[in-house]
């Protein structure tokens, strides 16, 4: 087990290094001079030159990367061009807002969708199976922004049950904060349930065809015991991997939901920074999202042996 953990940790290091190089290169590949773009069309040549020196753009690409990477390792992501605020605390505070929504949504979707997928596999080709698979396909096909707008229209404007726009932190006011989180979380839950139902059904069907399931049934165990005590744990392994991928993807791709519901999360910060041409913040957001994705998948890999011990043996 220790060897397995060390191998996964060592494999994550080159990935993190590649992520850092990619993020650095993406910002530098944006057309135009970043200094000139930040200062605007009315900037004088001496102002542009001073900004290039301040940003370290007068140095070679390798020197720029070494300086930037060294600062990042010390927790210095730079400062925002727009307001001069330190990038790391800004990104971290916005990330907590996004993580609050994403983690709750993924947990709720998993609790609902995984048992539904297992039941669909257990009742394969029945009316229940067809209904669950059909529902999952429909949910998977609905764009999240459109679904969010529909929920806003129904529960916000028509029924008036939930707030339409704005955001209040749960830490400031628990009751009001929860109300503002209901619709974005509901949107993500409904959409991601489609993926998880289909995955849980497919992995459970594969396990139910194995010999040890036939043996368990031959011993006279009830179908519910065979399904939940013997099949579920092995079937959950692939679904657990998908849950990790969904969590990582949502942490990086929640900008649409945050824009629809005007939530000040990491995605919204990235969109606003792109429009403001705030390159240090854009770079910090991209790096934070990429590292989060790598770390989430690392945790998924480390926990996978609990669902399938054969992974450690291999």
From TrEMBL:
- Per its UniProt record, what Pfam families does this chain match? BPD_transp_1 (PF00528), BPD_transp_1_N (PF19300)
Subcellular localization is given as: Cell membrane
Highest taxon listed in the record's lineage: Bacteria
Q: What InterPro entries does the record point to?
A: BPD_transp_1_N, MetI-like, MetI-like_sf
- Domain ABC transmembrane type-1 positions: 95-304
Which PROSITE patterns has this protein been placed in?
ABC_TM1
Q: How does it sit in the membrane?
A: Multi-pass membrane protein
Q: Which UniProt keywords apply?
A: Cell membrane, Membrane, Transmembrane, Transmembrane helix, Transport
Q: Where are the transmembrane segments?
A: 9-30, 95-118, 130-157, 177-197, 239-261, 281-304
Q: Which PANTHER family match?
A: DIPEPTIDE TRANSPORT SYSTEM PERMEASE PROTEIN DPPB-RELATED
What the record says about family reads: Belongs to the binding-protein-dependent transport system permease family.
Q: What is this protein called?
A: ABC transporter permease
